[in-house]
Structures are given as C-alpha cells and as structure tokens.
Write a structure and sequence with these properties.
The chain folds into three domains: 93 residues, no CATH class; 108 residues, no CATH class; 76 residues, no CATH class. The two termini are 31 Å apart. Helices cover 17% and strands 26% of the residues. With 303 residues, it is α+β, with helices and mostly antiparallel strands.
Length: 303
C-alpha cells in the first residue's frame, strides 16, 4: 500500500541505492511496523482490533460506578471503541486469592455500540462507538463499601484489520488471514486497487483460540479463516489488506511511512510546481507529520 500510494517517495532506493528487491521489501516492512507504532503511540492505544483483559475496582470512582436509577454497573474501559464483550467477572476486593463469579452472557452489554463496523454492508470511513459497558444489577453493590469489588472484563476493542496469507479466487467464501480478531459480523474492505471490494465476515475460526483469564473461556484471535456472507467478486493475492479501519487512519500510516523515508536523507517527495504560488522554498518532514497528526486527532485517547 505504501509503495502504490501517491506520496512521491522513491521506494526503489530504500534502504540504499541499488538494493535488491528482497532488501527493499524487508525495509518497507520495517517502515510499516514503525509507522504503525508511530500512529498507535500518537493515539495512546492500539487502533487495530485487539483482545484486552482489564481489571478495575468499584463502585465509587469515575471508572466504575453504579447508576442510581437502574442499579446497573457502568464501567469505562481503557481502550475504545469497545466492539465486543467476551467475559465479565466480579469478586470481593478484600479476598485473596480471588474468587471470581462469572456474570452470565446476556447480563452485560456495550453502552454505545459502534454502528460503522457491524450490522452494515460497508464499513464507515469515520470512527464511532464508546468505551463503556453496562453490567446488570446484582453483581456489584455498595454492600462492601467504596471500591469493595473487583471487576474483570475481557473485551475486544478497535477496528478489525488483517491481510491474506493465502491467495483467494473469484467465488471464494473463505479467506485465510493473519488475524481474525473482531471480524465476526464485521464489514471490511479488501484493498486491491481496481479489484477492491467489500466483504462481511459471518464467522471466524482461529487456528489457536486465545484463552481468557479468570473465566476459562476462549476468544477468536490470531491467524485463521473468515467465512464470508457472499462470494468474492474478484481474486486477490497473498498480502492483500482486509480492513475495517477508517481510511484516514490508513492514510495517516502511509504519511508516517513517508516521513521515515524522507528523514533517511536519501530520497525526496516530487510534486508539481503550482503556477502563481508565492512559495519559493520547499516543505519538510514537519508538514507531513502535522498532516497525519491532524488526521489522527479524532482517534486520540486522552489519558
């Protein structure tokens, strides 16, 4: 994606002039990983879908409290958007070792579900959703005092994002990918130039499901397969990106990649001169950094 993006970067001389195709590709991968780190660091969280296990104390603080009218427990998770709740447990905060009580499925939900990934035929180009969950009354109370309970939550946050690990052909209803996290029920783009299409994953099958702490349950995460709601309309090669990430996040990562190439001092961005421009000098890396930061501001988590 970075090689085909309209950045003007001469990727064929990265990491050095006359480097081999293998050397160029290896460094492009390194640049992509660093760009991902730059984007995640600026937003103070991982943006692609991850499984998170978080433990909080409550009630009686801004993170975990009880709604007076309903008796529901409202817990604010560290990462957003929360797209799935895998397990919830509670226990007394004063008892060691912990003796967890599982909250049954159906007795908790996401307070502000995202509408841009699930229940749609095409993912949204912008971020939405919240980071709080609600737990039914009876699993936490003021009976043990302020912060008398511990609340353990396993949840999925972020946007599903993966790539093909095996080529797909027209009419296929299954994709083999490097990460199935968060894809159950999700809509995503298969980014492949003129053959780009949207898919909806009805189900996921992880090669090795992730074991959740406390509850003993498992989560669909890591390499595996996506079962599609409808057949592919085109074939796609290994490495093709399949993603629900808003496009401005993807473009921010491309710009972060371009800044690394420019900072290496061996290449430059080529742009057409604009007639009538009052500018006589060029612009540096700082302009690209400012641009990707502006794109990422809506997704930045305030700590």
């Amino acid at each position: 994606m970075i090689a085909n993006a309209p950045t003007g970067i001469s990727w064929n001389i990265i990491p050095f002039p006359k480097s081999s195709t293998a050397e160029q590709y290896a460094e492009q991968l390194n640049i992509c990983w660093r760009a991902t780190g730059i984007v995640d660091a600026y937003c103070n969280q991982v943006l692609r879908a991850t499984v998170d296990n978080e433990t909080l104390s409550g009630p009686g603080n801004f993170r975990v409290n009880m709604q007076q009218a309903t008796g529901n427990v409202r817990a604010i998770m560290s990462r957003w958007p929360v797209t799935g709740i895998l397990a919830v447990q509670t226990c007394s905060n004063a008892v060691f070792p912990r003796q967890w009580t599982n909250v049954p499925s159906g007795m908790y939900d996401i307070e502000h579900p995202t509408i841009g990934i699930y229940g749609t035929s095409s993912p949204s180009a912008a971020g939405d959703g919240g980071q709080s969950i609600l737990v039914a009354p009876g699993y936490m109370s003021w009976g043990l005092g302020r912060e008398g309970y511990r609340l353990a939550v396993s949840y999925v946050n972020g946007w599903p994002h993966t790539a093909l690990t095996a080529a797909a052909t027209t009419g296929d209803t299954t994709l083999t990918v490097d990460d199935v996290t968060g894809f159950t029920g999700a809509a995503a783009f298969v980014y492949d130039g003129a053959n780009t299409e949207t898919v909806v994953a009805n189900a996921t099958d992880a090669s090795t499901p992730l074991v959740l702490p406390n509850s003993g349950g498992t989560a669909q995460a890591g390499p595996g397969t996506l079962s599609l709601a409808s057949p592919l309309t085109a074939g796609h090669s290994i490495g093709t990106v399949v993603s629900s990430l808003p496009q401005d996040i993807l473009w921010a990562a491309v710009l972060a990649s371009a800044t690394q190439a420019l900072e290496s001092g061996i290449t430059a961005i080529a742009i057409q001169n604009l007639p009538g421009s009052m500018t006589t000098g060029g612009h540096g890396v700082s302009d690209l950094e400012l641009q990707y930061q502006q794109l990422l501001k809506p997704y930045r988590r305030v700590i």
